[in-house]
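Look over both lines:
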Amino acid sequence: QVQLVESGGGLVQAGGSLRLSCAASGRTFSSYAMGWFLQAPGKEREFVAAITRSGGITEYADSVKGRFTISRDNAKNTVYLQMNGLKPEDTAVYYCAARAVTAPVLPRAPIVYQWWGQGTQVTVSS
């Protein structure tokens, strides 16, 4: 059983930055690929970024490339999302997700991630 808890969301002006954190429980954090997803009001959950078990490979949605950075610290059982140059359209609830993997793949479909956090609200004002 894996428990994930996101933090770091809040209200920020356009052009500002936030750093989201996702703290994980469990003995096997380093065996999971980790992802960040967002869900805006009235819309489907969508992929933001993902990172492999050791942190060696990352993947980003086109909309956040060059602005967001995903990283992880397996010693602290934590994954991060550094968000720079925030835009009003980034406003959403951000979710951390974990997937047990046996291959170095980074799927983008929410359904393939087994465990999810409760989400943290990010609001960007213009």
